[in-house]
Write a sequence for this structure.
């Protein structure tokens, strides 16, 4: 079989559609917020020499400049030395900046206001440090593999929730004039072999899962997108015509620029012709090999890359700069060590607290002025060697607040569980004892006789350039680290009022802990960053009722997820069926399902109503392409409402969730998919209305044959509930 025939066969099997080369990417029709920015960019480009253009598309080189990525200034157009800097939860290497909660914690709040505020504060700190492009937020990894090392840098193992959080975060960052960068584009789901493997994914799965949150990012007018390290269907992400020109620039109408992940570029002409617009850091990590710069110049002079393509790159980069108003005088000078924290720790505490998920509580919580408390675990105290003692958080020592890698930041301060509990105990007159190790020796003595024993356990992961305790980025297993199961067993054997607190990057198998007599509560603290202890005390003592809900499934067994870190290429054989979509489809009972979370109060659901302003036409979206895709995809076509009542004794907040089931006329699809959520804060006895606005997009599937988003005709199932499995109201929607 010839190569072409083989390629066609592979494409047919994978249902891959190969886009035509579309360089340079077309402009969208209609006027957008980008129109003026692109005119200014075109005027500036007309005044630039070829060398100037090459200068702004090529990084100055690894560790050559004040930021992790830099380009040289062009004085003729007043264009500055551009600073691109990590990352998704604050200013990497900063000394005066906030360590915001990781995105996974923000997702777990399901609170769009807190997520938006977090974005705005991230942007404000970036701006205060003179950073032009903040390298975040993250929608890839999406989290299809529970072990995936960088899942915690993203918001949820669900495209809908991830997409809303991407949009709110980008809005927040860009509202203060900082360019956001949606990364890592795309299907970069594991750390192992991330720089050599190919993610082979079918077209429908690509659209409905992985591209979905990037479409939200583009719809939010994100200024830049970072292409990832991996290959996609056999060609490098940063020179993938289908992904960059086809999906991002043509189909989604992305108007900003694509920047390479650091050293993710492989060729001079392939990357240029197939859609990448800026190379970072400009050299490889030894400061040698340069693929653009003089090489790009030569490729242009040899007609391997057109001058029009170079102009397009430069225009996109400048348009993003103009879009955010960064050409106006007064942009702060670059200083990543500036003190920019303001009052932002309030957002950290709120997100850490409201992203905490109460998994089990037989009535022991909230605590009420106990006479004697015992606290156990190495994760109860600040890292004894210092809160920032490990480069890029590449260790799991002491209390855990974030995972490791380029997406980590320094803590400006750190409140560990012990610090906050000690303060509370002093105020209450409680005697607090501490066993700050994970060794079971002596723990019985430490906890016996206390009214309750709190044991803190962890699981960590991060980026693959660092290995921590044998975990090479991705986790090797889903158990608690440091013999957490045995520690809990030892504590509970000596104290029948044991409260387990888990600080983790993602799901942990809890079967041993839940089967241990004496474990009366499990508090899923997630990744609370610098406000770790304060958030925990807020929840343990009921200052605030827990209101976080899981953004991934906690399974009974690792193999229940149906996905693993792969050694070679990943064929994404699970297709659409990741996380709860898989558990629902395969009929597997999770331990704690996606969307689950308890409260100190109770909520009832009533009065489900669905209204459609006019009949919803079935068939494809046909609107003109605006950033994010066809404009009508984003129209609200139906509104669902439900009444939520707080029937308990204390104030609380409920995350009501809406799941849709596609009609029978649609191709096989997950039994239910999240398509709306609303968080309501309610006093005891109070009721509120949860309102879910369904966009045309929310009712659509990606039709591979037509290459369009299609609303199928028939009856949609509408389910509203407290989690993906605790459905309280059911209805339908007719198309
Ligand atoms: C590689 C990481 O994948 C990316 O997220 C980060 O922004 C760059 N390094 C720069 O540090």
């Amino acid at each position: 079989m010839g190569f072409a025939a083989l390629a066609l066969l592979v494409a047919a099997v994978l249902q891959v559609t190969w886009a035509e080369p579309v360089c340079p990417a077309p402009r969208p029709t209609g006027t957008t917020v980008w129109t003026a920015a692109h005119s200014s960019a075109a005027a500036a480009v007309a005044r630039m020499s070829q060398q100037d253009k090459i200068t702004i598309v090529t990084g100055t080189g690894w560790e050559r400049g004040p930021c992790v990525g830099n380009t040289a200034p062009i004085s003729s157009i007043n264009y500055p030395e551009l600073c691109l800097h990590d990352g998704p939860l604050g200013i990497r290497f900063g000394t005066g900046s906030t360590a915001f909660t990781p995105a996974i914690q923000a997702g777990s709040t399901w609170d769009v206001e807190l997520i938006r505020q977090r974005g705005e504060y991230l942007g404000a700190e970036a701006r205060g440090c003179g950073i032009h492009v903040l390298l975040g937020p993250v929608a890839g990894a999406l989290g299809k593999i529970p072990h995936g090392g960088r899942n915690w840098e993203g918001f949820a193992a669900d495209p809908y929730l991830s997409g809303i959080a991407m949009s709110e975060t980008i809005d927040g960052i860009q509202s203060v004039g900082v360019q956001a960068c949606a990364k890592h584009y795309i299907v970069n789901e594991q750390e192992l072999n991330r720089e050599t493997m190919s993610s082979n994914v079918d077209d429908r799965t690509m659209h409905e899962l992985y591209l979905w949150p990037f479409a939200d990012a583009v719809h939010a007018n994100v200024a830049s997108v970072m292409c990832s390290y991996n290959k996609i269907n056999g060609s490098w992400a940063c020179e993938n015509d289908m992904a960059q020109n086809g999906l991002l620039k043509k189909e989604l109408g992305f108007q900003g620029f694509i920047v390479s992940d650091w050293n993710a570029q492989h060729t001079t002409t392939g990357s240029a012709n197939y859609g990448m617009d800026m190379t970072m850091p400009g050299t490889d990590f030894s400061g040698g090999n340069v693929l653009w710069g003089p090489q790009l110049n030569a490729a242009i002079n040899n007609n391997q890359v057109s001058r029009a393509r170079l102009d397009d790159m430069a225009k996109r980069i400048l348009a993003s700069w103009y879009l955010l108003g960064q050409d106006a005088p007064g942009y702060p000078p670059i200083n990543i060590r500036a003190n920019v924290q303001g009052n932002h720790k309030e957002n950290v505490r709120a997100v850490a607290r409201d992203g905490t998920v109460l998994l089990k509580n037989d009535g022991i919580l909230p605590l009420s002025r106990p006479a004697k408390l015992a606290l156990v675990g190495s994760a109860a105290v600040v890292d004894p060697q210092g809160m920032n003692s490990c480069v890029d958080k590449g260790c799991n020592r002491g209390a855990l607040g974030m995972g490791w890698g380029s997406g980590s930041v320094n803590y400006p301060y750190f409140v560990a569980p012990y610090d906050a509990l000690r303060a509370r105990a002093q105020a209450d007159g409680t005697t607090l004892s501490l066993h700050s190790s994970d060794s079971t020796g002596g723990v019985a003595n430490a906890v016996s006789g206390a009214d309750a024993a709190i044991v803190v356990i962890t699981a960590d992961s991060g980026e693959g350039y660092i290995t921590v305790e044998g975990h090479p980025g991705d986790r090797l297993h889903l158990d608690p680290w440091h013999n957490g199961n045995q520690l809990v067993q030892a504590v509970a054997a000596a104290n029948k009022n044991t409260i387990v607190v888990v600080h983790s990057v993602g799901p942990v198998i809890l079967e041993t802990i839940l089967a241990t007599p004496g474990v009366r509560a499990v508090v899923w603290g997630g990744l609370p960053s610098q406000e770790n202890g304060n958030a925990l005390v807020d929840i343990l003592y009921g200052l605030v009722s827990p209101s976080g809900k899981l953004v991934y499934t906690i399974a009974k067994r690792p193999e229940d997820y149906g996905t693993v870190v792969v050694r070679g290429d990943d064929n994404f054989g699970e297709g659409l069926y990741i996380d709860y979509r898989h558990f629902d489809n395969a009929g597997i009972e999770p331990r704690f399902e996606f969307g689950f979370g308890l409260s100190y109060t109770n909520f009832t659901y009533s009065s489900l109503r669905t209204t459609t302003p006019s009949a919803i036409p079935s068939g494809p979206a046909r609107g003109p392409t605006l950033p994010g895709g066809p404009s009508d995809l984003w129209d609200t076509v139906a509104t669902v409402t439900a009444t939520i009542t707080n029937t308990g004794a204390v104030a609380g907040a409920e995350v009501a969730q809406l799941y849709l089931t596609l009609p029978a006329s649609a191709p096989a699809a997950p039994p239910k998919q999240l398509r709306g959520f609303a968080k309501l804060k309610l006093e005891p006895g109070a009721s509120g209305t949860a309102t879910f606005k369904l966009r045309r997009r929310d009712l659509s599937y990606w039709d591979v044959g037509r290459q369009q988003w299609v609303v199928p005709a028939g009856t949609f199932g509408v389910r509203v509930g407290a989690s993906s499995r605790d459905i309280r109201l059911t209805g339908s929607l007719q198309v």
Summary: Residues 121 and 343 are 9 Å apart (CA to CA).
